[in-house]
Amino acid sequence: MKKIILTMTMLIACINSYAQSNPVQGIQQINLGLEDVVEIIILNGTNPTMHFNTVNDFANGVMSDEQELLIRSNKNFVVRVRAQASRFAFAGNGNDPRMPLSVLRLKVIQNNTGGSIASGHHNFTSISTNGKNMITNATAGGNNRFKVQYRATPGYTYPAGQYAIDIIYTATQS
Description:
Number of domains: 1
CATH topology: Immunoglobulin-like
């Protein structure tokens, strides 16, 4: 009797091992082609306008509202700033008074990029047409923000009218 049970157990074990099919696999490799990307977004959405309404405004200058910029980059980066032209464009009565870029200054007032504020940009500093590093060694990420503020001090030399100049921010990956 023991011999029959043992033989039946072995027979059942053999049937079970042949009854299971071997698993079959299909392997597919997924490749991602990532490129270097960097983007600058000016979050305020409007161009700052500084109004000169009083004698004190002309004497002491006027500061803009804070301007917040967002940079998204998958590599570390540097931010540079420059002006498009060496003089403001003029819209008003009479001849163009040729207001120089030196009337305008810029200051970094907040930096959440993981980088360092470049020399001089902790205070209001001049802007050039050649460009200057403003933030260095900023870290990769999708929510790198910094804020700047402008200060204009034209003095009493220039007539009433609208003056405009383009300021260009450039993020370069390192």
